[in-house]
Design brief:
- It catalyses: a peptidoglycan chain = a peptidoglycan chain with N-acetyl-1,6-anhydromuramyl-[peptide] at the reducing end + a peptidoglycan chain with N-acetylglucosamine at the non-reducing end.
- Functions as a peptidoglycan terminase that cleaves nascent peptidoglycan strands endolytically to terminate their elongation.
- Its EC number is 4.2.2.29.
- InterPro entries: MLTG-like.
- Among the domains are: about 100 residues, no CATH class; about 120 residues, no CATH class.
- Strand 8 and strand 9 form a beta hairpin.
- The longest helix has 18 residues.
- The chain is built from 12 helices and 9 strands.
- It is of the alpha+beta class.
- Strands 1-2-4 form a 3-stranded antiparallel sheet, with no helix packed on it.
Length: about 325
């Protein structure tokens, strides 16, 4: 469960049984000397932390990290924030580092790609002491930061990066730094001023739907192809954003049919009404430079590895969905 910003191992309970049957290798030692700033997000579980550690080259496998948690005499407590780690750490060493407040970077915060505004504010508060309420107040007028007139919040324009703030920084200066960094990226990727709103919305969606670099450009093409064909985007990520249940990957029939959710791209055609995350360089580039291809569908067929199948026809897509359903059946405790 999550209580007061603290993430407990209990949150993913029964899933631990799956890992006892998985053979994995592990790095040895405390790292190779290459520093990595790693962020624990509000709502993270041991599983999600382990997966990102593996993705960022800190640990070799997420399974090794989970087993290190299980080997501890007491349940570890993970506090949201940015921590100093290294590449190629043993899972046990990474776990020790993440539960040691001495490794927490003061006045520095790393915002991972795809983090939503609410969680950005929580991370900034943890690093600087500037409260979420102060940040929300400073962000109340998005246009004062130079955002398009359509923007109702700073969502989409808080660039994911590592920031080192000084004690003199204010809520306004911190948010200005993040927004300015987003515009630096937009300019670097050649986004015309009159396309900023469209590109940020698409990039925010790509960021939530894609995992591997090649897939970012293919996901971009799928969404643009569907708009060209006057097909709804049908993204679960937009639905969950509109419900406020940001951390879920799946949706219910009732949620997908709820037209009162203005972010629901099953019920509403065209591009999602507003950004649903804060995208990074790769997603922005993919929004501007989609891959060439006829795909109209994609589905992640393995939620653990992120393997995704792209399809041109509905029959091909149904076959991929069957593959996904089979994976879910074989992994009933996956969340």
């Amino acid at each position: 469960m999550v209580a007061g910003g603290v993430v407990l191992w209990n949150q993913y309970g029964d899933r631990i049984s799956d890992f006892f049957s998985v053979e994995e290798t592990d790095y040895e030692g405390t790292g190779n000397g290459v520093e990595v700033n790693f962020t624990i997000l509000p709502g993270d579980t041991g599983t999600t932390i382990g997966q990102r550690l593996a993705d960022e080259g800190v640990v070799l496998t997420s399974e090794a990290f989970v087993k290190s948690i299980l080997a501890m005499p007491e349940e570890p407590v993970f506090m949201p924030g940015t921590y100093k780690l290294q590449e190629e750490m043993s899972a046990a060493a990474a776990l020790v580092a993440l539960t040691d407040e001495e490794n927490r970077v003061e006045n520095a915060v790393t915002i991972p790609e795809g983090t939503i505004m609410r969680d950005v504010f929580t991370l900034v508060e943890g690093a600087t002491g500037i409260t979420v309420a102060e940040l929300e107040s400073a962000a109340a007028d998005p246009q004062s930061f130079g955002l398009p007139e359509e923007a109702q919040t700073l969502e989409g324009f808080l660039f994911p990066a590592t920031y080192a703030f000084s004690p003199d920084d204010t809520a306004e200066s911190i948010l200005t730094t993040m927004v300015d960094r987003t515009y630096e990226s937009l300019n670097a990727h050649g986004v015309p001023e009159d396309q900023v709103w469209d590109v940020i919305r698409l990039a925010s969606l790509i960021e939530k739907e894609a995992r591997f670099e090649e897939d970012f450009y293919k996901v971009s093409r799928v969404f643009l192809n569907r708009i060209d064909e006057n097909m709804p985007l049908q993204s679960d990520a937009t639905v969950t954003y509109g419900t406020g249940a940001y951390d879920r990957a799946s949706t219910t029939d009732t949620e997908r049919g709820d037209a009162s959710n203005e972010y629901n791209t099953y019920a509403h055609s065209g591009m999602v009404i507003r950004p649903i995350s804060n995208p990074g360089d790769l997603a922005i580039d993919a929004a501007m430079h989609p891959a060439d291809g006829p795909w109209l569908y994609f589905v992640t067929v393995n939620l653990e590895t992120g393997e995704t199948v792209f399809s041109e026809t509905y029959d091909q897509h149904l076959a991929a969905v069957d593959e996904w359903l089979k994976w879910l059946e074989e992994n009933p405790d996956y969340e």
